[in-house]
Amino acid sequence: MTDGFEGYVTPTPEEYAEVLRTGLVVLDANVLLNLYRYTEALRNDLLAVMSSLADRLWIPHQVLTEFWRNRDRVLRDPRETAKTAVELQKIRGQAVSVVQSWVNRVALKPEQASVIIKGLTEGFDSVLASVGELNDTVAIDAARDTNKDMALASLNMILRGKVGEPLSEDKLAAALIEAQRRIDEKVPPGYMDRKKDSAEGAGDYLIWEQTLIEVERRRVNVLFVTGDAKEDWWRGEGGERRGPRVELVDELRERAGVRLFMVRPAQLLAYASEILSVSIQEDSVQDADRVDTFLAEPEPYMEHGGWNQEALNYLLSRLVDEAPSQALVLVQAANQGGYVTRSQVFEVANYPEERSLRGFTRPFNRIAQLMREEGRLPEQAVDLFRAVYNEDSPAVGVAAGFQIHDDVLPLFLRRIRERVPEAEDD
User: Fold this and answer.
1) CA–CA dist 326, 345 (Å, integer)
2) How far is 289 from 300, CA to CA, in rounded Å?
């Protein structure tokens, strides 16, 4: 009855116990990054669970790549306390303006208006003070120094000998093409990351492929632990996550003949407490669940992928100074509806034939990241220029061309011709 339909079957407590005791427990990058978002007690509990798993714990190499790529960003504001304070300050000013407008409309006496506005501002100030008390800047500043980061020191000990090897150059090139195919055809996992650039957008699939390779070697059931709530990992019914996507369950069974289980960090803590007899603080499961819920909230809609004309002009200006060839290619792509071929890149940039285009989009990503850090660009803003890979290309893994992001393209078409950069080829 259930053979071939394991993706629809709810695991029993006994099956979870079995996979924790004898299977392979794989952690996603967000689980490691959550160590900086958790309270000290919860962080210690998760580290204790990881330690108790011994050799059953395993980390794909891509997970560490994403951990280091995102660690500094998370440390800037791990609990988004500073962000919350800024938003409260903004709302505070808006609220005072609304009250002041009402005061003027009804011609309220100055002494009455003063009492109302004072009560409003004092209320906001009290909330802001409470929020500020939770901003543990001392611990965050210490963690930025990798030599003083206690969480990192614990991870170094726990994960020693438990991290997979990176893919070979040939396998990585093939995996990047497969990741793009999955994004284009909405095949899990990873297609929900289509707004990221080609390297970061392939991250979920690279984690999955590296896991498949390891499981093919070990031939044991897998418990994948992730805080990711997107639909390209989870099978949803009525807004509820019921288990891993059926396609993932089937793919693992076809590749390695074993079963896939999937839980969130809060569930791992609960199961470990019951099954592995790890001592867990009373509130840790609930605290982990709150963090999971917060991180799972959908990102707000951003017009033009988070870009506006001012941000676009700023990036163009920086490109003209720092990477003029990339600026010229970007303009060429915009003038052609958003896409520029590989051969056109060589022609426009006046590159020699033997030059590689690997890393061509790096200046775009570097400047955009600086803009995020300076507050010129939202953290979730899309990467506006990405490499496009052609599966039929004679050279596997070689970009066939470059594409402006669809969300940003209308903004380009509106103003780009007014700001054609005049720059010399590098």
Assistant:
1) 9
2) 21
